[in-house]
Design brief:
globular; seven-stranded mixed sheet; alpha/beta
Amino acid sequence: MKLNILIGGAAGQGINKVSEIVSSILVSQGYFTFNYRDYPSLIRGGHNFNVLCVSDKRVGSIESKLDVIIAMDDNTAKVHKNKLKKSGVIINYKSFEKNELGRNLNIALAGSLTKVLGISEKILIGEVRKQFDNKETINAAKLGYSLKGLKSTKSLQKLNNKISIMTGSKGVSQGAINSDIDLYIAYPMTPATGVMHTLASNQIKDKLMVFQPENEIAVVNQALGASFAGAKTMIGTSGGGYDLMGEGLSLQGQSDIPLVVYLCSRPGPGTGVPTYTMQGDLDIALRGGHGEFPRVVIAPGSPLECIETTNEAFHLSEKFGCLSIVLTDKHLAESEFSSDRKPNKIIPVKVNRKIPGKRVVKASSYECDKFGNTTESAELTKQNADERIKRYSQIQKESKKFEMVKIHGKKNSKNLIIGWGSTKTAILDAIEGEDFKFLQVLYMKPLSNQIRDEIKKAKKVILVEQNLTGQLGRAIREKTGLKIEKRILKYDGRPFYCDELRRKLKSIK
């Protein structure tokens, strides 16, 4: 069973609240949900919509056709009506008397949607009371549920699944908390800001500090200073902000001060389409900052993996004094995923370095001798560079303790899909019941040798990425010498629809 429900209107009308109420109800009844948010870069107005996918099985994407449309304005039905299935239902705001609900139209529509799904009014009222507990919202929910002419087209009986909802932003935040983070520094930039807000909301309880300086240049330099003093430190930004950090990232490479970076991609170049999604920043994650120095780049594909890989990033950064980058995108950061699983065991993150205070500790942007004194010696310059490369080999060895890649789908299939990051869940939904093996790459640097082995075993290899040039494919070719000819690339700022992706995968000969 799978349903796709679109809730649309203008910014400020409470679209997200409709999704939140209905998602909470469905999850309490044992159903899996996935909620995708689509909105322009406007504070108010414009056309905003969520697509809520509901299933009795794990789900992590949406489809191109709709079962229900909830229209909070005239534009929603106009824009999306052609995507409605023949058996689909439209619930229009015009069904209610003008000024009958005031600011609670969204609550009434949530009530109407609950009725269509065949869930009892008692469960609806219980959820609304839990979130608001006032007479006006409860009356609005009842009015929506009892709307004249509205019928239950589904009958969703309760299932025995224990499910929770989480975004990628909350996953990264939890991974940082699990790593005993001391300090998170960031300047607000969509879509990375979700982590900043999440960590800031419970600073005292979680025993950490969140600080917003004047710009991203200040962010990275303050973070290096704090980390030098012994604080477990993480910073966060998106593409343009990451560019500003380039010199500071290079300073990290020279100074060996541990630093974790959360890079949440959005479409570029320039400002691009800032509230949409893309996997276009892999190249800068792999190479940003001048000079050659070791780093780790990890790209989780779900909120659960965000928890785990952020914890791993802290561990590797502290153990080896390296730059660790957790790479996501808007789609993973802001979409709401449901799961019945729990993250892997937490890795204790130890501070394995000298801390100023009890002794003299030096860190510099210059090449230095063993005493921390600046040098321009050719011999020491080469020696220090060799030490950095040697440390990268140690990072490679340590990374093998974690899941650098994952295999999904039919394990003995000769049809291999390679993808990463937020494409994971759409690929999983697309290949369900089909003859495909999916190789998910989590560690973009270092890359696993297993990638070469899986490509050589396959007869057909398909690269799936949300960028223009197939950046992971280029990284794989650089490491293995193997070029992936068959590619499905999407770069319009919107995520993959799982049904369209399935058709494209099956059409490749």
